[in-house]
Amino acid sequence: MTTCILLTLLCFLTLTTSASAECSWVLWTKIDVYSDGKGSAATLSPDIALENKTECEAALTKQWQRTREQWIRAGGERRVNPDSSVSEVSSSPGLVEIRLTGQAGNLLQKTTYTHQCWPATVDPRGLKGK
Questions:
Q1: How far is CA 115 from CA 18, 43, 87, in A?
Q2: What are the tens digits of pLDDT across the range 74-125?
């Protein structure tokens, strides 16, 4: 009887462990904007839910490239608005940083996009208060 219970428990643990390893994942984007030498509150929001970590990492790469290309095009056009232009776009996988300068060459704004994959069971924004 005890052996039967232990065997059932072992099978249950094995199934739940393999299921959690293949849980869904969520691609998140965090945007930090610094202007006038001050940081603003960062926004962190979910972009898309995917079947597994591999799919999420592939989506992260595409999103990172899309963000980077968008700002490189804007930099090629130089003008974002009449008072500023894109002076620099730097990036590494999952991270894009854009610097906007004024007509006098002074830094007006720095924006950082960070793309991250998290298991669907994790909310990287942290605990929510009541």
A1: 27, 12, 22
A2: 776 555 566 777 888 888 888 999 888 887 888 888 889 999 999 999 999 8
Measured at the CA of 93, the angle between CA 33 and CA 19, to 5 degrees, comes to 105
Indicate the helix (H) or strand (E) that contains 80.
strand 79-81
In the numeric block, which tokens belong to residue 20?
Answer: 């959690």
Give per-residue burial for 91-130: e unless 16+ CB within 10 Å, then b: beebbbbbbbbeeeeebbbbbbbbbbbeeeeeeeeeeeee
**60 Cβ contact partners less than 8 Å away, ≥ 6 residues apart:** 27, 93, 94, 115, 116, 117
Return phi, psi of residue 16, to 5°.
-70, -30
Report residue 52 as tokens.
């597994």
